[in-house]
Amino acid sequence: MAQKEVKQRIASVKNIQKITSAMEMVAAARLRKAEQRITALRPYAGAIRRMTRQAAEAAQNVPNMPLLEDRKEAQRVGLMFVTGDRGLAGAFNSQIIRAGMRAAAEHEAKGREIVYFASGRRGVSSLLFRKKEATGSYTGFTDRPSYANAREIAQDLMTAFEDGKLDRVEVFYNHYVSPLTQTVTREVLLPIAQATIEEADQVEEDLQTREGSGHSALTEYEPEPQEILERLVPAYLEISLYRALLESTASEHGARMTAMRSASENAGEIISDLTLQMNRERQAEITQEIMEVVAGAESLT
């Protein structure tokens, strides 16, 4: 490779390094805000989910509330993929799609019909690429989701469940642990009797430990549990999806920050290698010129 080509390549890599460094700084700034939002929401989301399950258990059979039906023999399963609108975030989007498609294969092996939902352009495009029709697609807000976005998704899922188009709803999202670690999480949202409520289980264990008893405290409801559930169940689904969206947003910014930092470091290594190569070639040219001058001088003597 000629020196001119090496110089051009070094300049190109330096430009890329500037872009990746800028993207890293932007992701880091957005990550701090996303961390604050998810940290503030987690206790509230856990409390809502715990209250909903306790009220559902206390109410037993509630007429005219399809959302509380325990459809053990599910025939139609809704899978909700929470991804991002953009890429350049490592395996952030692809690992959600892979986990969701594995779950779909498990359900199909049991003879169940799959209905797909996806938030984020990456999830929607991945389903289209796999020739899977997305019954619900939600895009344009993954950088900063609002509660209204979660309400829109929740309303579609609730309507489908109440109309009998879905017997089970699962959501897949990246749970934020740290900028370096995001874990793929699979949660059952509906039916509530089968819902995955890890926070509730942990809180109940803590309460039982403090009380020194294997039984939780008796809760009295005013008004009746049925009346409470009419308001609580929609809120449960909305807050569960809102938390999934916020967790995914924080995970996306963390994954992008880490990916861009790695890209910047790799660019630095490439620049060092190319600079070394250029210096070697320049040294070889200088040596060749000296040898030619010496050979010419010797031929004149």
Summarize the structure.
By secondary structure, this protein is an alpha/beta fold.
Write up what this structure looks like.
This protein is of the alpha/beta class and 301 residues long. 63% of the residues lie in helices and 13% in strands. Helix 1 runs antiparallel to helix 6 (225-300) and helix 4 (147-162) crosses helix 6 (225-300). It has two domains: 3-20 and 258-300, Helix Hairpins, CATH 1.10.287; 29-255, ATP synthase, F1 complex, gamma subunit (Pyruvate Kinase, Chain: A, domain 1), CATH 3.40.1380.10. It has helices at residues 3-59, 92-109, 121-129, 147-162, 198-211, 225-300, and strands spanning 76-82, 113-119, 134-138, 168-178, 181-190. It has six helices and five strands. The protein has a five-stranded mixed beta sheet with strand order 3-2-1-4-5, with helices on both faces.
Write the layout of secondary structure elements.
Elements: H1 3-59, E1 76-82, H2 92-109, E2 113-119, H3 121-129, E3 134-138, H4 147-162, E4 168-178, E5 181-190, H5 198-211, H6 225-300
Parallel strand pairs: 1-2, 1-4, 2-3
Antiparallel strand pairs: 4-5
Helix pairs in contact: 1-5, 1-6, 4-6
> Spans of 5+ residues with little confidence (pLDDT < 50)?
199-211, 213-217
Order of helices and strands: HEHEHEHEEHH
User: What is the annotated CATH architecture of the largest domain?
Assistant: 3-Layer(aba) Sandwich
Major sheet = 5 strands, mixed
For the termini, the CA-CA separation is 37 Å
Highest CATH level, the class of the largest domain: Alpha Beta
CA-atom Rg in angstroms: 28 Å
The fourth-level CATH homologous superfamily of the largest domain is ATP synthase, F1 complex, gamma subunit
What does the oligomeric state look like here? single chain
- Please give the number of β-strands: 5
Strand content bin:
5-15%
Number of separate structural domains? 2
Helix content: 55-70%
Strands ordered across the widest β-sheet: 3-2-1-4-5
CATH topology of the largest domain: Pyruvate Kinase, Chain: A, domain 1
Net shape: elongated
Number of helices: 6
